[in-house]
Specification:
heterodimer; A: alpha/beta; six-stranded parallel β-sheet; 16 helices; 6 strands; 48% helix; B: 10 helices
Chain lengths: 335, 256
């Protein structure tokens, strides 16, 4: 017979009924006393557990990028980031946000944002915690990554983290219910015991390529990089044995804030780059099992990627390069 | 599509569990053969190995077959065949090939018969892509990764006469990524060299090293494997408590 386990949320009265029904049998008086004691102290036990939990920092993982198209690799980043942060014991990942870049980014081959948003929505349809946010993609001008982080951090600070992000295309009432249900189930008696001690912290989730792009001239403002690692933090999924650590070592800014940069080893070489997906599509090759089925079907149905689409923005300068070079010129002419 | 040789791809392995990488092998192989202009891939078959193969951590074959079936729900050309797993003992790969070849002969004969009868049944022409009037028997080829090709060199793992029969009578489609030198493996073996015309090397440029070993380890440690294998397979694994660290479903390798 299974030993009695203290179960949360079981009223004392029903516990007594079970004990009586079970009879003296396998428990014996000692077992009975222990069981009753643990039930009586359940409140205190719960508090101990919740005290532990409430000391953890709630984290939201934000991934910025083209998602042109979204692939299984992008989705893996979230899973790896969540497992890693949760395993530290210091964090609890509560949400993942995919923020596709706006069309004004002017990257070569970038197809219209609404398609990229819809594909990301389809890809995260079966995810309980990752969702798509369209704020960045709806802006007229390109938005620096640090500003996207700031936008989402401020949004969380105003306590609107319970509400699903707006989406122009798909209605997801189910997602909101799921998340709300999770919260309810986890706080049976003392709701305030499970309230996070502070506002959830937004952290930038990325691959090693983004980290290493910090060194591309004029792509990032140094003050933006500093703010990202100082005020927010980076969770960088890297191929085991990559040069990410060396890269951090060689940068004074990254070195200074290295405690805020989490390098997560990815043991599975998962090189499903969007560039290769687009190339395969142009060549009539299969992309099945590299992207979620719904994404593959959507791409096929709308014939999204071709040589023509790959020629978009050819000869156009990338928005961050344009902006940063112009600002640098302006600053130097002012001097 | 005219005059192309119809091909059926057969993949043998543990599929413990099946992952996106296994499924990719089929897609890459099919694309490669189509690109030659000579072949038309009409079917893919996944044949999970028998439990008595004795590999460590091998879960019961009915689970591995069920997971493969779930993974292939959305595929219109690949199916799982439990014949190998249902045999009384482990069956050499060449015998699995022989079995499926004879099955192809049978269904081809059925097609011939049904053509002769006035009311032709649709069932006998169920191989997709085959023109009902075509009498060409599909070529059955063994689909594998470059790592399997390399194992041909492992002493005592394969019988030489089996290797020869595989590459001479059937043919091999070998999908490789970085880290392997399939051309080298072929040139290092006299048998493979002799029949290299029957060995098709397909390259997968997109590295996707989803090892089932890693997946099992991640599951044992409570880590996420989402997006490495189909959701339906993950749900099955969870519902049946497979691959957890205290899983009761460990295979015969438990004692080791």
């Amino acid at each position: 017979m299974e030993p009695m386990k203290a179960r949360r949320g079981v009223p004392f009265s029903s516990f007594r009924a079970e004990v009586v029904a079970g009879g003296p049998g396998p428990f014996g008086l000692r077992g009975l006393m222990t069981a009753m004691m643990s039930e009586c102290h359940l409140d205190q036990q719960l508090q101990l557990v919740t005290a532990d939990t409430s000391e953890k920092t709630d984290v939201v993982l934000l991934a910025c990028g083209s998602f042109n198209p979204i692939t299984n690799m992008h989705l893996r980043l979230f899973e790896l980031g969540k497992d890693y942060m949760n395993a530290t014991g210091k964090y609890r990942v509560i949400k993942g946000i995919i923020s596709p870049v706006g069309d004004a980014y002017r990257k070569k081959g970038l197809i219209p944002a609404h398609h990229r948003v819809i594909m990301a929505e389809l890809a995260t349809k079966n995810s309980h915690w990752v969702e798509v946010d369209t704020w960045e993609s709806l802006q007229k001008e390109w938005v620096e990554t640090v500003k996207v982080l700031r936008h989402h951090q401020e949004k969380l600070a105003t306590g609107s983290c319970d509400h699903p992000q707006s989406s122009p295309s798909l209605d997801r009432p189910g997602r909101k219910r799921k998340w709300a249900e999770q919260n309810q189930n986890s706080s049976p008696k003392k709701p305030q015991a499970f309230k996070p001690t502070g506002v959830p912290r937004v952290k930038l989730l990325c691959g090693a390529d983004l980290l290493e792009s910090f060194s591309v001239p004029n792509l990032w403002k140094i003050e933006d990089i500093t703010q990202i690692v100082a005020n927010y933090g980076l969770i960088c999924i890297t191929r085991a044995g990559s040069d990410a650590q060396k890269f951090i070592y060689e940068s004074d800014v990254l070195w200074r804030y290295q405690s805020n940069i989490h390098l997560v080893d990815e043991w599975i070489t998962n090189d499903i780059s969007s560039t290769k997906i687009r190339r395969a599509l142009r060549r009539g090759q299969s992309i099945r099992y590299l992207v979620p089925d719904l994404v593959q079907e959507y791409i096929e149905k709308h014939d999204l990627y071709s040589s023509e689409s790959e020629d978009r923005n050819v000869g156009v300068i990338l928005a961050p390069l344009q902006r940063n070079i112009a600002e640098a010129k302006h600053n130097s002419s002012m001097a | 599509m005219k005059n192309r040789i119809p091909v059926v791809l057969l993949a043998c392995g543990s599929f413990n569990p099946i992952t996106h990488m296994h499924l990719r092998l089929f897609e890459v192989a099919r694309d490669h053969l189509h690109q030659t202009g000579m072949y038309q891939v009409v079917e893919g078959i996944i044949s999970p190995v028998n439990d008595s193969y004795g590999k460590k951590d091998l879960v019961a074959s009915h689970h591995r077959v069920a997971m493969a079936r779930l993974a292939l729900q959305t595929s219109d050309w690949i199916r799982v065949d439990p014949w190998e797993s249902e045999q009384a003992q482990w069956t050499e790969t060449v015998k699995v090939l022989r079995h499926h070849h004879s099955e192809l002969l049978k269904s081809s004969a059925q097609m011939e018969d049904s053509r002769k009868t006035p009311s032709a049944s649709a069932d006998s022409c169920n191989l997709p892509g085959i023109h009902p009037c075509s009498a060409v028997l599909p070529e059955l080829k063994l689909l594998c990764g470059a790592d399997v090709l390399k194992t041909f060199h492992t002493p005592n793992l394969w019988k030489d006469e089996h290797i020869q029969e595989i590459v001479e009578k059937f043919g091999l489609v070998c999908v490789s990524r970085g880290g392997h030198d399939p051309k080298g493996y072929i040139l290092d073996s006299p048998i493979l060299r002799q029949f290299q015309h029957n060995i098709h090397l397909a390259r997968e440029p997109i590295q996707n090293e989803i090892s089932a070993t890693y997946v099992r380890k991640a599951l044992g440690q409570g880590q996420s494997v989402k997006y490495l294998l189909p959701d339906a397979v993950i749900a099955y694994i969870r519902d049946h408590g497979l691959y957890s660290s205290d899983s009761p479903w460990k295979g015969k390798g438990n004692a080791s």
